[in-house]
Each structure stands twice: as C-alpha cells, then as structure tokens.
C-alpha cells in the first residue's frame, strides 16, 4: 500500500502545540538524500520546489522514503502548484513571497478540501492508498507562508491573523534584497524580522526564519523563532567533501 500521513507525523498539531522545529532544507533533488536526512532524527524536512532541482517523480519518492514530516516549498501561490505538492502526501506546504492577507488566505484555501477550501481531490499516493484514509488525515496538513519583502513586513499583522494559517517563515535572503539600496539594509532587514516575529506573537502563530547554519538556527531559536533551518543539503555536501579533501591533503603539507 502507498503510505499515507501517519498520525505521529501530524505536523499541524505539533506546530500548534508550540514545539520548536529544526528544519533540514533540500534543494538538490535527490530522494536518496531525503531518505538519509529523514533517518537522522530531523524534526521536519523542507523540499524546495521553488529554487531546487526536484521533478515530480523525485518529489513523490522523497515524500514516500523520508520518515520525517515533510514540507514542500511550492513554486508559486496557485491552486495547481499547491495541490500538486500536497498530492505527494506531504505534511504541509510553504508558499513563497506572500505580501498580503488576501494572498495568505488564497494559499490556505488552495490547501484545504471543500467546504473549508478549494483543493481538488486526487493524486497517485492518495488514490493508491485509499482516498478516504487520506481525506481523514488531511486535517493534519500544515499551511505556512513566507514573508520575504518589505511589503510583506508592512502587512505582517494582517497576514498573521488569516484564519487557517499555521505558521509564517521569514525568507531572509529575499528580504535582504527587498531592502537593498536603502540606508543600512542589514539593520532594516533585522528590524523587519523583528516586526514579523512580533506580529506572529500577537496572533499566537509560530514564526520561523531561514538560517544557514546550526549555530545561527540555535541563536534564532533563543530569540523566539519556532522554526529554523539547521542544515541544507548543498552546504552539508560541500563542507563534507571539503573537510575530507583537507584531511587527506594535510599529510602532504
């Protein structure tokens, strides 16, 4: 039988309970790496369709192989992109570049079956394992949006108040680009992050932030962010190879 969403992977309920999450971010497009990452005890895995190398078959394989909860960062905020990601059996979606409450509400609607939303029912994994079982488990699907622009920061309070939204994650890279050309863009970006975190706290909504290292993830966690990126596949592989080459070359120096 094609695996469905096990009850112990109900990401939405765990987020609502205030559990902090260390995310592993996967962009290379390898289901084998996803399986390995899922076996390390990762609290959740993000499969990045927006900037990553994933195709649909690789996505389906990765979701089926990893034992950790899976979030899919979709390419765009459309019913097709969100529905296709959730048809894989993933535990949730992460929608990029959301700037208004209306856009956040659209993401929620695209992620929920009627009457709560407008998601279409289907998919090889749901139908292969029994759609009734999948439908019953769909309440556990988490819906997150990314605030990554100055306009999104300005509307953070309204976005955080959208019914059915489960978390917000700050995209620090694009947010920095949004403030480029202003006076002290780094300070503006940090102020923007703080504003989003405050808006989430006021709405009792988990707030996450993209980080590049485990040390940065720990530091952000102490600031109150509920989701941080502990590792990403590109850096883990690059630093692992570099460390091995350096260790091998050390005797020759």
From TrEMBL:
Keyword Cell cycle among record annotations: no
A single GO cellular-component term on record: cytoplasm
GO molecular function, one term: aldehyde-lyase activity
One Pfam assignment: HpcH_HpaI
Domain HpcH/HpaI aldolase/citrate lyase as annotated: residue spans: 24-232
Keyword Metal-binding: yes
Family to which the UniProt record says this protein belongs: Belongs to the HpcH/HpaI aldolase family.
The name this protein goes by in its record: HpcH/HpaI aldolase/citrate lyase domain-containing protein
Organism taxonomic ancestry: Bacteria, Pseudomonadati, Pseudomonadota, Alphaproteobacteria, Hyphomicrobiales
């Amino acid at each position: 039988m094609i695996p469905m969403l096990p009850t112990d992977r109900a990401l939405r309920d765990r987020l609502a309970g205030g559990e902090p999450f260390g995310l592993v971010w996967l962009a290379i497009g390898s289901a084998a790496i996803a399986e390995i990452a899922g076996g390390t005890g990762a609290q959740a895995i993000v499969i990045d369709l927006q900037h990553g190398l994933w195709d649909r078959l690789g996505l389906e394989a990765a979701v089926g192989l990893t034992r950790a909860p899976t979030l899919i960062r979709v390419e765009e905020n459309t019913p097709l992109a969100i529905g296709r990601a959730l048809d894989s059996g993933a535990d949730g979606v992460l929608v990029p570049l959301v700037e208004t409450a209306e856009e956040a509400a659209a993401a929620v609607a695209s992620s929920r079956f009627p009457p709560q939303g407008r998601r279409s029912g289907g998919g090889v994994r749901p139908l292969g394992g029994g759609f009734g079982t999948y439908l019953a488990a769909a309440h556990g699907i988490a819906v997150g949006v990314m605030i990554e622009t100055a306009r999104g920061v300005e509307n953070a309070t309204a976005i955080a108040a959208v019914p059915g939204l489960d978390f917000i994650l700050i995209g620090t890279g694009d947010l920095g680009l949004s403030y480029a050309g202003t006076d002290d863009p780094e300070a503006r970006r940090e102020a923007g992050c703080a504003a989003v975190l405050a808006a989430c706290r006021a709405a009792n909504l988990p707030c996450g932030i993209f980080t590049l290292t485990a040390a940065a993830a720990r530091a952000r966690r102490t600031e109150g962010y509920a989701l941080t990126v502990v590792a990403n596949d590109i850096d883990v592989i690059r630093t692992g190879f570099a460390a091995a080459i350096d260790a091998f070359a050390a005797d020759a120096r």
